[in-house]
Structures are given as structure tokens and as C-alpha cells.
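Researcher: Quick test of sequence recovery. C-alpha cells follow.
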């Protein structure tokens, strides 16, 4: 069965929708997996164990976020090469990226394991949870090479137009993780009783098995991007590609760091209003995690689709991708927001004790802030398309202005007047400004002239200055936003 999609042909709407669905399903899977693991640890090992995993997982998420940008850069480079029908260049990108990811992952693992306790202490992990967190984190560092390589292979497959294969093997990761958690935590059957370390070991084992299975599947299917033995020379780093991975990837990774730091600032302001307000905000955050998933999936799909069309010189389809992605964002995100507003009392009460005084606070702030994800989605889609050419700095600047020039100051400066409402209104205010700035840059910016790599005879011969080519023989029937 063919899994890769040619994103340069056919109707934009249906192609984008089919391409984005596995990404969305994968995001939901990962969140549900985290929730299930938290239930095992929290309910059966206690609050100290749950605190330990929360601290260790913050580090794991940071480590994954740190290479998010490089993975996106690899996705775009592969997508542009596939769009240009240059498989040799695609394999050069994959070879250099694989060497980079594997090398970095080994360095992170070797440094992180012996320093786990020091890192956790630096984070002010509660002393009673520190030994548990260290036992958990040391194994997570052992898993880093497998986590990084799985993320890398998923990224290049998405760049080639294949989102179903990464989803299938991510599903395998999640199922194995769920199964191995209780077996290793409690020592069921032939398995040793490992306590909290068993939860981390389940993550390690599930990622090892799934990564090996994915590699064997690619080899068995003789995937077009599979690097055979006589092509091993491509694993020698190409300096131009390596430079692009770092120079273009780091700004995309910095966006994750900016978001994380801003969320820390926001919760520190919320904490000042007491337990009821903080728990209300925490319950709303649980919902918002799922509300933003359609936009993130559509944005990632738009980036891959735009990258292939940039490679093919199909600028008409690049613009069509942006319009269609924006329309899908409003439809899918809006379809989630509406029930969360209409049935907010029932949904939010799932995260709170019976009769909690925080419920009304949660309903109030949710009514104000949840609409911001409509604007956030447009920014995510437009930024994904813009980055597909190699224009990575302007989206970073726009995000920095929206979060640190608008959201944080808005929340801080208006609290004397609005109280906690200043914090909640800062979400739609900053999201709206980010959307307007992103649309303005899309309309008037020079992103179409950006490149991922210098134009060379043996590189991706797709300078962005090339005017749009005539439409392909396959009619573009995609919807227009």
C-alpha cells in the first residue's frame, strides 16, 4: 500500500486533510499516553512519585523541544527535494541529519545520566521526591538516542508526504508503553518490580522496539528514502546541509523555548491569586492542550505540503495551502471550542473535586481565553507555510513580540485595573496581534525569496525567485478560503 502522498498535485483541500489527520491523531495519542502513565504513577505510587515524574518529564519535554526545530528543518529540506524530484539530494539531507541526530543524542545521554541528580536539584525538585525523580530521569536519558532517532525518522517521512507510517509506529510506542508500565512498576509475571523506574523503563523499551520495527519496515519495503549499503557515503556530513539544519532549525526550536518561558511567567502570576484560581487555570490548561491540537497538526501538514510545492516551483499551490489551512483551522478548532463553551461546567468538573469553588473561576476564564486558539491557529498555519521556504526568523520575532511584548506586559500592567481578568484577556489580545502580524508578513514580507540552502548545481535547484509555473495537468480543485 502506498503511504507517501505527492503533495504537489491534486485537490489541495482533501489532500491536506488526509495528510493532517494522522498528525492530529498522533498528538492525541501522545497526550493520552501521558495521562495514562500519570494515572498509574499517581494513583498507585503516590504524590511523591507523581511529583518526581512531573519534574523529570519537564526535562524530557525540553530535550525533545530543543531538537524540534532541527527536525522541522530536516522535514522542509526533504520536502523541497522531493518536490524537485531530486532523490539524491533527499538522501544527502537524510544522511547528514541522521549523523547529526545520532551524535547529539549520544552526547545528551552521556552527559545527562551522571548529572541527573544535579539537574533536578537545580530545578528545586522537592527533597522527598528527588531520589525517585533521579531514578526515573537516568533511564529517560538512556532512552534519548531512541527518542531522537524516532522523531528524526518521523520528520523525514512527513517531509516525503507520509504521515500514516509515523502514526502507525507511534501507535505501537503508545500501546507498548501502556502495557509495560504496570508490568514493570509492579513486577507482574516474569518482570522485575521496579517502581517508578519501571515507568521510565517502559518508555525506553517501547521506543527501542518501535524504532527497530520502523527501520526494518523501511528496509523491507525498500522505501524510496531507504539508504542502501552502497550509499553509506551520504552519512558523511554535508557542511552546507548541516549549516542549514542548525541555522534554520535553531530559530524554530527557540519558539518552543519562548512559549515554555512565557507559560512559566503566566502561571507565576496566576499563583498570586490563590489555590482556587490556580487550580481553575490548571483545569482549563488540560482542555486547551486538546483545543490547540488541530491547529498544530494542520500547521505541520501545511509546512510539509508547502515545502514540496516550493521545491516544485508551484507557488499557486503554496498560496492555496495557506488559504485552505486557515479555513480548516477555523472549522476544526471552532468545532472543539463551541462544545467547550456550551458544556463547560460538565467538562471542567471532570478535573475538579465535587462541589469545587474553583469551577466557576475555570468557567469564567475559559469563556474569555479559549477563543484565542482560533487566532493562534491562523498564526501557526501561516508560519508553517512561511517557514517552508527557509524564512524562520520573522515567525520567531512575531512570536517573541506577541508573548513578551504584548501578552506578559498586558497581563502585568492591567492587573491593578482588571485583576485576574487581565491575565485571561492577555491570551486573545496577544493571539489576535500575532495573527495580524503573521498575515501582514505573509502579504508584504519577502519570505518567498528565502532559501534553505544556497542555490548550487547539485543542490535543491529551487530559488524562491522563480515565478509560478503553469498549472500541472492535474487540475487543482482544492477549496479556497
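Model:
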Amino acid at each position: 500500500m502506498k503511504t507517501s502522498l505527492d503533495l504537489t498535485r491534486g485537490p489541495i483541500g482533501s489532500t491536506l486533510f488526509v495528510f493532517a489527520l494522522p498528525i492530529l491523531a498522533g498528538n492525541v495519542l501522545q497526550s493520552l499516553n501521558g495521562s495514562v502513565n500519570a494515572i498509574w504513577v499517581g494513583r498507585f505510587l503516590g504524590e511523591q512519585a507523581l511529583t518526581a515524574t512531573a519534574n523529570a518529564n519537564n526535562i524530557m519535554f525540553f530535550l525533545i523541544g530543543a531538537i524540534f526545530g532541527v527536525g522541522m528543518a530536516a522535514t522542509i529540506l526533504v520536502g523541497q527535494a522531493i518536490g524537485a524530484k531530486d532523490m539524491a539530494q533527499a538522501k544527502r539531507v537524510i544522511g547528514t541529519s541522521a549523523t547529526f541526530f545520532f551524535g547529539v543524542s549520544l552526547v545528551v545521554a552521556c552527559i545527562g545520566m551522571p548529572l541527573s541528580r544535579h539537574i533536578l536539584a537545580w530545578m528545586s525538585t522537592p527533597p522527598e521526591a528527588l531520589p525517585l525523580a533521579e531514578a526515573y530521569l537516568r533511564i529517560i536519558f538512556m532512552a534519548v538516542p531512541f527518542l531522537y532517532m524516532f522523531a528524526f525518522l518521523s520528520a523525514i517521512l512527513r517531509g516525503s508526504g507520509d504521515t500514516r507510517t509515523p502514526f502507525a509506529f507511534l501507535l505501537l510506542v503508545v500501546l507498548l508503553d501502556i502495557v509495560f508500565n504496570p508490568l514493570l512498576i509492579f513486577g507482574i509475571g516474569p518482570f522485575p518490580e521496579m517502581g517508578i523506574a519501571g515507568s521510565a523503563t517502559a518508555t525506553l523499551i517501547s521506543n527501542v522496539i518501535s524504532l527497530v520495527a520502523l527501520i526494518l519496515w523501511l528496509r523491507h519495503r525498500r522505501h524510496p528514502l531507504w539508504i542502501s549499503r552502497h550509499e553509506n557515503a551520504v552519512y558523511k556530513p554535508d557542511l552546507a546541509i548541516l549549516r542549514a539544519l542548525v541555522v534554520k532549525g535553531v530559530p524554530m526550536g527557540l519558539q518552543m523555548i519562548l512559549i515554555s518561558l512565557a507559560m512559566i511567567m503566566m502561571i507565576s502570576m496566576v499563583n498570586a491569586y490563590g489555590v482556587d484560581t490556580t487550580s481553575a487555570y490548571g483545569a482549563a490548561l488540560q482542555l486547551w492542550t486538546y483545543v490547540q491540537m488541530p491547529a498544530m497538526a494542520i500547521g505541520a501538514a501545511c509546512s510539509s505540503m508547502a515545502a514540496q510545492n516550493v521545491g516544485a516551483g508551484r507557488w499557486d499551490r503554496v498560496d492555496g495551502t495557506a488559504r485552505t489551512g486557515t479555513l480548516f483551522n477555523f472549522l476544526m478548532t471552532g468545532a472543539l471550542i463551541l462544545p467547550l463553551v456550551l458544556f463547560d461546567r460538565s467538562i471542567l468538573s471532570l478535573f475538579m473535586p465535587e462541589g469545587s469553588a474553583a469551577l466557576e473561576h475555570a468557567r469564567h476564564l475559559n469563556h474569555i481565553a479559549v477563543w484565542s486558539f482560533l487566532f493562534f491557529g491562523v498564526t501557526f498555519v501561516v508560519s508553517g507555510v512561511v517557514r517552508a521556504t527557509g524564512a524562520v526568523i520573522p515567525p520567531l520575532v512575531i512570536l517573541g513580540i506577541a508573548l513578551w511584548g504584548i501578552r506578559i506586559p498586558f497581563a502585568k500592567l492591567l492587573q491593578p485595573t482588571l485583576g485576574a481578568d487581565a491575565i485571561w484577556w492577555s491570551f486573545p489580545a496577544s493571539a489576535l496581534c500575532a495573527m495580524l502580524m503573521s498575515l501582514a508578513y505573509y502579504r508584504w514580507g519577502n519570505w518567498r525569496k528565502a532559501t534553505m540552502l544556497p542555490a548550487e548545481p547539485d543542490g535543491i535547484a529551487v530559488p524562491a525567485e522563480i515565478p509560478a509555473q503553469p498549472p500541472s495537468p492535474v487540475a487543482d480543485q482544492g477549496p479556497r478560503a
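The radius of gyration is 23 Å.
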